[in-house]
Amino acid sequence: MIALLVRFVLGPLVRAVYRPEVHGVENVPLSGPVLLAANHRAALDTGVITFATPRQVKFLGKAEYFAGKGLKGKALAAFLGGLGYVPVERGNAQAGLAALEAARKVLDAGGVFAIYPEGTRSLDGRLHRGHTGVAALALATGAKVVPVALTGTENLQPKGAKIPRLAKIAITFGKPLDFSRYEGQDYAPAIRRSVTDEVMYAILDISGQEYVDTYHKRPSEGAA
Q1: Where would I find the Phospholipid/glycerol acyltransferase domain in this sequence (predicted)?
Q2: DSSP symbols for the chain
Q3: Phi and psi for 177 in degrees, rounded to 5?
Q4: Is this structure's pTM higher than 0.90?
Q5: How many CB atoms within 10 Å of residue 111?
Q6: Averaged pLDDT, groups of 10, the chain, 224 residues long
Q7: CA contacts within 13 A on the Cβ side of 97
Q8: Do residues 156 and 44 touch, judged by C-beta distance below 8 A?
């Protein structure tokens, strides 16, 4: 019920208020497993992707967000679930594997999962080297990878702003990438690196960002 309210009530309301420019939405396959690989400019990117994509999208979310007690905690958990968040524990050695497994379950069921290959928000506006988790998922599940470029979302909630502001934002969906030619080679590090780089260059092509071939350092807690 919450998911339906988010999709058919909150979604249209948000689009009417913020009027985002959406390009290439026809590039998102309407059936089968799809991996949305996006650049990451702001904390609100997840909401923008959710409200712009024609299918329900799943994302990873901190398990602690779902562990709140009382009515408020339950309401937050229900809302996050409606937005498409999948709870995953973080901060331990098995966190990365748990995240990939949660994403794989969504894709194996024929769903849509969104991932930020950079691993964290870009604080300098540039597109940074991608981590190979996006390749591992695409190769293991056979999902089509749709590159996604977000523009202007960093202006929605600048540092210090408690509520989102009106800002010109755009989301562009690129042509889907098919990596079936690498079937059976999903554990080869060189193949994973090659696939990841191809995905990142596809994002670069539609985002127009400057590319940096180094990983972005994860910002500390409370950073913008």
Answers
A1: 34-153
A2: -HHHHIIIIIHHHHHHHH--EEE-GGGS-SSS-EEEEE----TTHHHHHHHHSSS-EEEEEEGGGG---HHHHHHHHHHHHHHTEEEE--SSTTHHHHHHHHHHHHHHTT-EEEE-TTSS--SSSPEEPPPTHHHHHHHHH--EEEEEEEESGGGTS-TT-SSPPP---EEEE-PPB--GGGTT-TT-HHHHHHHHHHHHHHHHHHH-PPEESSPPPPPPTT--
A3: -105, 135
A4: no
A5: 18
A6: 67 81 97 97 90 91 71 75 71 68 94 94 94 95 97 85 84 97 92 98 97 82 44
A7: 3
A8: yes
pLDDT attached to residue 208: 94
CB contact at 8 A, 107 and 35: yes
* Amino acid code (one letter) for 180: S
